Structures are given as C-alpha cells and as structure tokens.
C-alpha cells in the first residue's frame, strides 16, 4: 500500500473587484514537503470571469497566473522567487494579498501521488 503524505494546498483566485469580495477560482497550488513537491495548475475561464467583470483587462491577469507554475518549478524561469527553497516559494505564493490575483487560505490533505492530487484539486475546485 502506498504511503500517505501530508500536503498543503491553496486555491488561486481572480478577484476582479476586491471591494466586492467576488472571485473566480483559477488554479491550485500544492506543496508536499515529504515528497519534495511544489506544483500548480492554472486554468482561467475567461467567459465566467467576464460575467463577474465585463471589460476587465485580461492580459495582466494571464501574465500573473502564468508566473505561478514557473515559480513552483523554480530556477531562472521563476525569477528571484524561483531561487528560494520549495517551502519558501510556497509560502511566498500563498501570502495574503489585496491584488486581483490572490490565494485562498491554506488547507491540508493527504495523498499518495502529488501530481494526481493536484489534478484532482483542479477538477474539484476550478473546473
């Protein structure tokens, strides 16, 4: 039987009007220290976002969202943050923000396969 590992995850949200508190789930970040895993999947449903905020400039949002998986992968592609440890990158990504791209509070889960759990969370929380 595969060993269960404790993981932490946060849902990536697009908050078009911070003052209204409405948001659209657009991705998931998963961190498993034990498996040395940090990954993210991002899928922005632009049609649903337009229903919340018609006329919103999407290019900057797409750019912000595209950075998240690159930061998770680390290295030069992740910029200065990509050079940090897995744990430091995860905590930087999930730090509270008052910008248009935010994350939910961090939640815990158990998994035997980090990639499969990341896909499961994307399906359950975003799609």
Explain the overall architecture.
By secondary structure, the protein is α+β, with helices and mostly antiparallel strands. The chain has one domain (5-125). The chain is built from four helices and five strands, in the order βββαααββα. The protein has helices spanning 46-52, 58-73, 86-93, 114-125, and strands spanning 5-14, 24-32, 37-42, 101-103, 107-111. Strands 1, 2, 3, 4 and 5 form a five-stranded antiparallel beta sheet that branches. The longest helix is centred in the middle third of the chain and has 16 residues, at 58-73. The chain is globular, with a radius of gyration of 15 Å.
Distance separating the two termini: 30 Å
Please count the beta strands (DSSP E, at least 2 residues each): 5
**Which ranges are low-confidence, i.e. pLDDT below 50, for 5 or more consecutive residues?**
none
Query: What count of helical segments does DSSP give?
Result: 4
Largest sheet: 5 strands, antiparallel
How many structural domains does the protein architecture include?
1
Strand content: 25-35%
Secondary structural class: alpha+beta
The level of helicity is: 25-40%
Overall mean pLDDT: 95
Strand-and-helix sequence, N→C?
EEEHHHEEH
Nearest-angstrom radius of gyration? 15 Å
Characterize the overall form.
globular
Describe the structure using short key phrases.
34% helix, 5 strands, alpha+beta, 127 residues
What is the fold's blueprint, element by element?
Elements: E1 5-14, E2 24-32, E3 37-42, H1 46-52, H2 58-73, H3 86-93, E4 101-103, E5 107-111, H4 114-125
Antiparallel strand pairs: 1-2, 1-4, 1-5, 2-3
């Amino acid at each position: 039987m595969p060993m269960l590992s404790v993981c932490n995850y946060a849902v990536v949200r697009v908050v078009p009007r911070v003052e209204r508190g409405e948001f659209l789930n657009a991705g998931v970040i998963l961190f498993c220290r034990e498996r040395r895993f940090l990954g993210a999947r991002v899928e922005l449903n632009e049609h649903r976002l337009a229903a919340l905020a018609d006329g919103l400039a999407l290019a900057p949002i797409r750019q912000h969202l595209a950075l998240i998986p690159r930061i998770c992968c680390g290295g030069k592609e992740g910029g200065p943050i990509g050079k940090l440890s897995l744990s430091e990158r995860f905590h930087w990504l999930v730090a509270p923000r008052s910008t248009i791209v935010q994350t939910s509070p961090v939640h815990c889960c158990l998994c035997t396969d980090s990639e499969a759990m990341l896909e499961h969370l994307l399906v359950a929380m975003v799609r």
